[in-house]
Design goal:
about 375 residues; alpha/beta; Substrate Binding Domain Of Dnak, Chain:A, Domain 2; Rossmann fold; 4-stranded parallel sheet; 15 helices; 8 strands; about 50% helix; about 10% strand; globular; binds iron/sulfur cluster
Length: about 375
């Protein structure tokens, strides 16, 4: 059986250069659609025979996006727009943009004005996502998006194709859940940066291909002898926790990620899309059942209760909140969720993440101090 370290290498390579994957897809004559966070169903893109390509920003310094966005907008949107303005996303047939935070609401108009040639598909869903009326609003919205994608793809969008796409993505979710469990059992073999790369690569690969790679890795991890690792156990939360520099500091400070409630990670695969007669309704229900993300309407702060449960189940020493700089929804959630963690006696550290900043040395000091405090 292949060693885990050999199976991890391709995930790291993919995340170092996602653009190469986009070029490959386009060179094969396929059409691709950029999918911004959050909860834009990739299944709709697969259902019309196109490839989704995740757009979660990039670690780069922006030179042009400042003409469209002020400096106090998060780096996901600055750097994604910058990639569009620099032509790094040329060849996409469209970008799908949700309207679930104030900054995202202006992304579509900025993109249309600045990038222009790549059309925008606005994705809206019901804020009251758990009610029948909210579900119906979201279902109808997803149907409209499917129609628009079908026009761009030049082919009909059948319910059978959508159901098949949901099945493929649900298989990927199950594979990722099995992988995160195996990674938590073997922190000596999967560093925080490796874990992130495995999860993130799915945004750039065909989901079937990703599932096969993740399953092979999980099998190799499960075949390892029982771990004797004695480091510190973390659960992470936030929007993104994918900066290699920050994740390397985590590993160097003796932490492993046992579980996460990160919008780019487990939030997306903790639950499957329900199988329903109308597959678009299943996608709407999935959104109603999702938890753990600050852009979801969550008046009772289930996010905090879930985080406490995850931390306890993982026997975590603490929670790390990777706070996306200039993200209002995250800052609003921080106060009540922090209180819930305090009430549960779970230590919390917050570090700020910014894709436009290459330096995490302040975070290193904070993490080293947090580690010392946890070790007592
Ligand atoms: S939720 Fe936060 S990080 Fe995400 S796009 Fe909105 S402001 Fe940016």
């Amino acid at each position: 059986m292949e060693k885990p370290e050999n199976l991890l290498a391709p995930f790291r390579a993919l995340c170092r250069n996602p653009g190469a994957q986009l070029d490959k897809v386009l060179a094969e004559g396929k059409k691709a659609v950029g999918v911004l966070p959050y909860f834009c169903p990739e299944e709709l893109v697969y259902a019309v025979g196109m490839r989704p390509f995740g757009l979660w920003g990039a670690e780069l310094e922006c030179a042009s996006s400042g003409r469209y966005y002020p400096g106090f907008i998060c780096s996901i949107l600055h750097t994604t727009l910058e990639m569009g303005l620099r032509g790094m996303l040329d060849g996409l047939s469209a970008v799908m943009v949700p309207t679930c935070c104030d900054a995202l609401k202006s992304f579509g108009p900025n993109w249309k004005y600045g990038v222009g040639a790549i059309p925008v598909i606005d994705a809206a869903w019901g804020q009251n996502r758990k009610t029948p009326a909210g579900e119906e609003f979201t279902r109808a919205s997803f149907r409209r998006i499917l129609g628009r994608l079908a026009e761009l793809a030049g082919r009909r969008a059948s319910d059978a194709a959508l159901a098949e796409a949901i099945a493929v993505c649900n298989e990927n979710r199950a594979a990722l859940r099995a992988f995160t469990a195996a990674a938590a059992a073997h922190p000596e073999a999967v560093s925080p940066a490796d874990r992130s790369a495995v999860l993130k690569a799915g945004f750039f690969l065909d989901r079937k291909e990703h599932t096969a790679m993740v399953r092979a890795l999980t099998e190799a991890l499960n075949a390892l002898p029982e771990s004797r690792w004695k480091g510190l156990r973390l659960v992470t939360t936030g929007i993104l926790a994918d900066s290699p520099a920050l994740l390397d500091i985590l590993g160097e400070s003796g932490f492993a990620v046992m579980d996460d409630q990160v919008a780019q990670e487990s939030v997306l695969f903790r639950r499957d899309v329900p199988v329903t007669e109308d597959p678009a309704l299943g996608l709407a229900r999935y959104l109603g059942q999702a938890e753990g993300c600050s852009v979801l309407y969550d008046p009772g702060k289930e996010r905090g209760r879930e985080l406490v449960r995850l931390a306890r189940a993982a026997k975590a020493d603490g929670v790390l909140w990777v706070m996306a700089k200039f993200c209002d929804p995250e800052e609003f959630d921080l106060v009540p969720v922090k209180r819930m963690l305090e009430d549960a006696g779970i230590p919390l550290l917050t570090v700020e993440a910014d894709q436009q900043s290459a330096s995490y040395e302040q975070a290193r000091s904070a993490l080293e101090a947090f580690a010392e405090m946890l070790r007592g």
